[in-house]
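Hi support team,

I've been running sequence recovery on a batch of backbones for a student project. Most finish fine, but this one hangs at about 90% for roughly twenty minutes before it completes. I'm not sure whether the input is malformed or the queue is just slow. I've pasted the structure tokens below so you can try to reproduce it. Let me know if you need the job ID as well.

Thanks,
M.K.
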């Protein structure tokens, strides 16, 4: 199995990082994709520590929409920060997470869009996939991916909680759809119905840890080993064995991120 999206470089894991990595390996995780905030030196340092003990891990680097305001007036600087860090990192495999978040609006929407566009252009320049965060911004997110991707962009809509229409739009772009622990929540009935119609070869699994721990760990700190609960839920929805779906999502990860 592969956790295709986790924040293992987050401060929440600093005290017991080695134990978290050991539990992930014991849970048969081949690797994880660690999401790093572009320009965050503490996260970069922790990622290097992880790579030293788990060389198979890979990273994705980007400016989250919550932080887009730091680049107001100069969105191309976000692109430059991310490009420089990606080129320094031998384990970098994607640009992200990037996108739009109109729920919290921590950054002005026009600034979010400018920073998002600049990073999509960077992904095209570097021939890397994008890891996309979108919340209450479906139409604008798809518009940016179409405008700036120009049909050449690969990527994933991560921690998917959107509508069937958003899933279809993502699939039409050739994107993968990744599900996290939310798909296990009792009230996530509509999300599970959407998950059923995503083709097996476009599915990814993730934890988004330390956030969104799946049932039965809900309310606790999440960690990569808990991705098994996600794959078990999706396997049931797709009528596959856990082993089969775990193997399929692993193959999907390799196809997209080319680790």
């Amino acid at each position: 199995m592969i956790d295709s999206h986790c924040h293992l470089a987050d401060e929440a894991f600093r005290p017991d990082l080695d134990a978290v990595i050991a539990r992930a390996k014991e849970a048969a995780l081949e690797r994880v994709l660690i999401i790093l905030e572009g320009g965050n030196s503490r996260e970069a340092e922790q990622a290097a520590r992880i790579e030293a003990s788990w060389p198979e891990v890979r990273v994705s680097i980007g400016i989250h929409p919550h932080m887009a305001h730091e680049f107001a007036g100069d969105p191309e600087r976000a692109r430059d920060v991310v490009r420089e860090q990606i080129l320094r990192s031998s384990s970098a495999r994607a640009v992200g997470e990037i996108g739009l978040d109109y729920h919290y609006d921590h950054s002005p929407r026009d600034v979010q869009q400018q920073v998002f566009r600049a990073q999509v252009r960077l992904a095209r320049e570097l021939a890397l996939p994008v890891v996309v965060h979108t919340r209450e911004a479906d139409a604008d997110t798809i518009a940016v991916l179409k405008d700036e991707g120009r049909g050449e962009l690969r990527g994933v809509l991560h921690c998917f909680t959107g509508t069937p229409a958003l899933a279809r739009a993502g699939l039409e772009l050739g994107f993968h759809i990744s599900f996290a622990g939310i798909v296990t929540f009792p009230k996530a009935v509509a999300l599970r119905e959407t998950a059923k119609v995503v083709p097996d070869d476009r599915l990814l699994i993730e934890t988004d840890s330390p956030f969104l721990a799946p049932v039965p760990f809900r309310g606790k700190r999440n960690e990569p080993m808990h991705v098994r609960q996600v794959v078990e839920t999706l396997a049931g929805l797709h009528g596959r064995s856990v082993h089969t779906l775990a193997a399929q999502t692993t193959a999907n990860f390799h196809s997209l991120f080319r680790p």
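--
Follow-up from support: It reproduced on our side and the slowdown came from queue contention, not your input. Residues 96 and 131 are 5 Å apart (CA to CA). No action needed from you.
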